[in-house]
Amino acid sequence: MLTNLAFMYKGHKINIEYKYAPFLDTLRVHFTKKNQCPLDFISALPKLPKLETLILQFSGPVQVSRALRHTFRFANFKMIVFFLVKSWKECICSLAYLLKAAPSLEYFGVHGFSKLKEQPSELNVTWPEDLTFARLHIIVIKGFSGEPELMELLYFLLRRAPALESLQLETRAYEPFVFRKEKHKSEDEERCRYATEMASTHLAPKVPSTVAFSIT
């Protein structure tokens, strides 16, 4: 019997076997190899009755069909954080389907790694209908670069989260596996300025007055 309160794994996909973990309340899974999906990992775990916090790193985007195969594990989560290493473009709607399966969700976070080297383009995202995040109070986006898919995701969440109290955007680059080099400093400053402009110009007008909104 696993008695840990929290479990974290970082690396390539492996098999971890245990039968029962009654006290586990936090699970962090950071997959680093392309085409390996952490959703497969959590779906293979046994029943985790106390698990409320889930933190996953995706090395690439996940199609809606694949996401739907794993939504049964999301029912009890109150806090979900996704690390998105690559751009998800239209696949960003997969996150909404995962969140749809978490009716108790109170905190949602996204940590992005985009450098916006490509020119942003318009996206045609199909969102799930008849969906409300009734208990969602806090949204935090780190490593925000003004990506079109994250902008679309935030537009969607703002429309569907009536109890939202706080929306926080952090533009500082988020790179957990490598150290930043000085030669990239000016490039990152330009990215941060762009992200701040996008959020201030296009996102801020859509934020309800009841929501505390910050950009740093």
UniProtKB/TrEMBL annotation:
Residues 7-215 form the At1g61320/AtMIF1 LRR domain. This is At1g61320/AtMIF1 LRR domain-containing protein. Pfam families: LRR_At1g61320_AtMIF1. It comes from the Eukaryota. InterPro entries: At1g61320/At1g61330-like, LRR_At1g61320_AtMIF1.
